[in-house]
Amino acid sequence: MNAVTSSGATDPVPAPGLESRPASPVPTPRQLARTRRRAALARFWREYRKDRRGMFGLVVLAVMIAVALAAPVLASSRGLNPIYATATPNAGPSLAYPLGTDADGRSVLTLLIWGSRNSLLVGLTATLISILIGALVGVVAGHFGSIRARAGRLTDNVLMRGTDWFLVVPFLPLAMVLARTLGPSLGVIILVIGLTSWAGTARIVRAQALAVETRPYLERAKALGAGHWHQMYRHVLPNVMPLLLANTILTVAGTILAETTLSFLGLGDPIRPTWGQMLGSAYEYGVGTGNLLWLLAPGIAVILVVLAFTLVGHALEAVLDPKLRER
Amino acid sequence: MSVILDGARSSGLARTLAVKVVSAVVTLFFVLVCNFFLFRVLPADPAKNLTHNSALTASQLAAINRTFGLGLPLPRQFWNYLVQTFHGNLGRSFVNQLPVAQLIGQALWPTILLVGSATVLSTVIGIWIGIRGGWNRGGRFDKTSTAFVNVLYAMPDFWLGMVLLIAFAGSALRLFPDGGMHNFTGGSTGLAGVADVLWHLALPGLVLTLVYLAEYSLVMRSSLIDELKADYLLTARAKGLRDDLVRRRHAVPNALLPSVTLIMLNLGFVISGAITTETVFSWPGLGRLSYVALNAPDYPTLEGCFLLFSAAVILANLIGDLLLTVFDPRVRQA
């Protein structure tokens, strides 16, 4: 069993020439793997850097994440509480309030900064849930689907029927119904988006897993007595990982938009502001006159962050799949 | 998908089609199950849920439980629910006591008008952009249109709606009405009435067209690029056909089929655009109906809208899938 566990697809075979040179210390497999990985990463980065749109996305994301992390330093969280808001409601930009104020007299800039925190948090956590379910279903369905046994086919069929169901049922009405019956909170929003958005990932991962299953190293692992779990975890999963990474980034773009829509429809947590919620309250207040930045700023922030995730995702896809590079 | 395609290989087209129809019916059945559980089983106390959580005496609660059959065993309740739904009885709205089926019937045509016109426009424009960009990919038109489309794709549709609403219907310009489907006077009929509706349709129609267009042009572009390296294009060029003819007669027809089907398969996305856009423009359609029901909260109406949306998407998927299987031999053999 030990032989199998230490020889995953990425693990190196010690080069034959190395044993005959006692002068230099023989690199351990671990060291070899590390240098190889570092080289692969450097190659990847060189390839990625060529994509100008991808780099633009990366820079925007870095700024957004920095703002989200530094929110408590940039703006006091007291500014979120309407009780402490003393400014004129719905007033245009001034020196003290660079982006003006909302209907409660809170600074739009403060809301925007703290909103980036919650919007990114919801986007990333919902994506995590979605990707975990999608990868699990995809790998298990792909692995068992490639087995000739009846039980394997059955597992694949059942999982894929479930996936098809989530793929077909319209996302927004389902999410609205779920969020309404479960009650409004940030956690529910995360859960609802995660639970309704994994089907596409499962499809893609399954297709890739089916392709991986035909490779000789899986046959070798099976011959050495590897169990289902070992095959899936050590061989199939690492090989669908690159694809999964690109898909994850693209999923974040979708989940942030979904959060914006659900919060706009009034399903968010009123105490924790997100960009979607700012837009929702601007709509409910009827922001036709007064501070237009209250409407424009969060909208532009959403566009920028979604665009950045999309561009980074497409750039990653192009680096990982040379066939797409010409696009 | 593999099951369906395996089936096609073994016993032909008829069997494939049958499998697809059956699987659509099964999907619809699970929507009903989901609806039943979400609204009747998941809430701790459906009777309280049904009555807006108002304070009720124990005997009143018992009476409600009796009326709605909530004391019956679950399978029995489910059966009753199925029978009622198939008779078109979707319950009554909490807000105005009207039958939900009637509310949905009134809201159906405005939505079909709005979504239908936006879909037609965006399909035509999106496919045109996709063809032009994809054929000369990397060119100036392609670069500009891709950037434009990517921004549109990242834009929340309701935000675009609000910005356009303030810009063109706000106090500054007043070029378009700020919502609804008719004038408040309402009396205009005939040609004037049609013009009135079109005038109200312009802004929400524009928003939905732009939002849908982003998706469709991307699909068409990548579908055309997939065809660019095909051998038959080389043959067509070798025959001496003009570039224009190679594109029109050979590449586009092959790229068009997957795109049009994808558009059909994408009705779920169309519906979510309709919900937010109708909300922003107070368009009296199904989207606005479900938004109002969501915030009332008016559970029977919300449930009815969800059922209808799901059924529409499942049906559109089935039709798209069937069309593709019948018309595209590549799909059958894949």
Overview of this structure, please?
The complex is a heterodimer of chains A (327) and B (334). By secondary structure, chain A is mainly alpha-helical. Chain A is built from 13 helices and no strands. Chain A has one domain: MetI-like (MetI-like fold). In chain A, helix 8 packs across helix 11, helix 11 packs parallel to helix 12 and helix 11 runs antiparallel to helix 13. The longest helix of chain A has 38 residues. Chain B is mostly helical. Chain B is built from 14 helices and no strands. The longest helix of chain B is centred in the N-terminal third of the chain and has 40 residues. Classes of the chains: A mainly alpha (327), B mainly alpha (334). Chains A and B meet through helix 6, helix 7, helix 11, helix 12 and helix 13 of A and helix 1, helix 6, helix 7, helix 11 and helix 12 of B.
Topology of helices and strands:
The complex is a heterodimer of chains A (327) and B (334).
Chain A: H1 2-5, H2 29-49, H3 52-69, H4 71-74, H5 108-145, H6 150-168, H7 171-182, H8 186-196, H9 199-213, H10 216-223, H11 228-264, H12 275-285, H13 293-320
Chain B: H1 2-41, H2 46-50, H3 58-67, H4 74-86, H5 100-135, H6 140-154, H7 157-169, H8 190-228, H9 231-238, H10 243-265, H11 267-280, H12 286-295, H13 299-327, H14 329-333
Helix pairs in contact in B: 1-13, 5-6, 5-8, 5-10, 5-11, 5-13, 6-8, 7-8, 7-11, 8-10, 8-11, 9-10, 10-13, 11-12, 12-13
